[in-house]
Write a sequence for this structure.
């Protein structure tokens, strides 16, 4: 392996820079290999000056830094790229151009750090001849084939700290505090942070809820003398008799933007006579320095991805399994998105602790 490319696609997640750092160091120190960074996801293959050399000096100090030094794009679908032609905005397929770009730049392998959408595109590019290795990134933790994506632990830490902070006002003012968390169609962030922060109600996409059931839990607490409640709501949670709340419709390029269910839940509870406030944690969950766990995972993923590349084992994704870094086929990883398993001990434990999922 003489030359390795790296790109980061989709939403940013804490740990991207740590993966880049580990990959560059491993490629240079272990394999004496040259590394090129691609800017702004797959776009970097198309736009001018989208490719930059990455040396040891370029990755110095990156371990604790959030974001990605390469930039990213969540509109970067190679099969539907927006361009202006004759004054009209149209979408075109640039996948062949990307595969040609990889070859033109003499890359022996391309590490793609991304979530669901980016890894889907990565697999399709492999089928067109690109030497791809995937690294699972996302705060949502919704990628199949791995027990954890990097970025998730940091998001859960931020969300748990937020719940801890909401507790004090909830208790002082005898209020219901609703916290809306990210996660798209997977409830991992709300479930983990909700349990870690001692929430009374956790609403996740995998368990459709009833408003009456949520209020019943709040009322039961008041009757027992607990005058406040904390409710962690995943942005993708939906009522049994309704739909997810979408703040912006999707199109050919963007997936629908979720958001607003926290407000809906909060308003319902307040109408039932309980003073309620709603907080949306939003992109604070994606920002900031990665936790030690995410730095550790990202470093191991970055190094393992380079080793896979050196062995020519393309169309694979590095993965965490029982504490070890292994690899799975990209096809397997993207086949079925990961969701909260309702029979898992995490859900059973939460129920046993008296936490309501709004479905009883
Ligand atoms: O996939 C990560 C994520 O943060 C989701 O949890 C959230 O729904 C989405 O991205 C937000 O995307 P954007 O940054 O485009 O608003």
């Amino acid at each position: 392996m003489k030359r390795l490319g790296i790109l980061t696609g989709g939403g940013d997640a804490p740990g991207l820079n740590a993966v880049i750092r580990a990959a560059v160091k491993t490629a240079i120190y272990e394999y004496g290999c040259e590394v090129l960074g691609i800017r702004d996801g797959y776009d970097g293959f198309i736009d001018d000056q989208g490719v930059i050399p990455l040396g040891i000096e370029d990755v110095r100090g990156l371990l604790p830094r959030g974001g990605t030094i390469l930039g990213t794009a969540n509109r970067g679908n190679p099969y539907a790229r927006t361009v202006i032609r004759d004054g009209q905005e149209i979408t075109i397929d640039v996948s062949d151009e990307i595969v040609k770009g990889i070859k033109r730049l003499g890359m022996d392998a391309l590490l793609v750090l991304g979530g669901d959408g980016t890894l889907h595109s990565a697999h399709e590019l492999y089928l067109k001849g690109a030497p791809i290795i995937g690294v699972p990134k996302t705060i949502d933790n919704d990628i199949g084939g791995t027990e954890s994506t990097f970025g998730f632990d940091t998001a859960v830490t931020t969300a748990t700290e937020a719940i801890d902070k909401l507790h004090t006002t909830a208790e002082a003012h005898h209020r219901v505090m609703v916290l809306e968390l990210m996660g798209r169609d997977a409830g991992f962030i709300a479930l983990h942070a909700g349990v870690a922060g001692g929430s009374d109600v956790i609403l996740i996409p995998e368990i459709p809820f009833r408003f009456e059931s949520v209020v019943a839990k709040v009322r039961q607490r008041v009757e027992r003398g607990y005058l406040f409640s904390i409710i962690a709501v995943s942005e993708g949670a939906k009522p049994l008799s309704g739909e997810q709340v979408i703040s912006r419709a999707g199109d050919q390029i963007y997936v629908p933007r979720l958001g607003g269910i926290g407000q809906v839940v909060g308003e319902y509870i307040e109408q039932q006579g309980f003073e309620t406030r709603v907080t949306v944690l939003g992109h604070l969950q994606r920002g900031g320095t990665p936790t030690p766990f995410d730095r550790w995972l990202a470093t191991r993923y970055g190094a393992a991805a380079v080793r896979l590349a050196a062995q020519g084992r393309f169309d694979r994704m590095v993965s965490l399994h029982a504490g070890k870094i292994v690899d799975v086929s990209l096809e397997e990883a993207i086949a079925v998105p990961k969701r909260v398993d309702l029979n898992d001990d995490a859900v059973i434990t939460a129920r046993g602790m008296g936490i309501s999922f709004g479905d009883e």
In short: The CA atoms of residues 31 and 218 lie 59 Å apart. The mean pLDDT is 96. Residues 11, 74, 115, 138-140, 182-184, 235, 257-258, 286 surround 6-O-phosphono-beta-D-fructofuranose (CB under 6 Å). The longest strand covers residues 3-8.
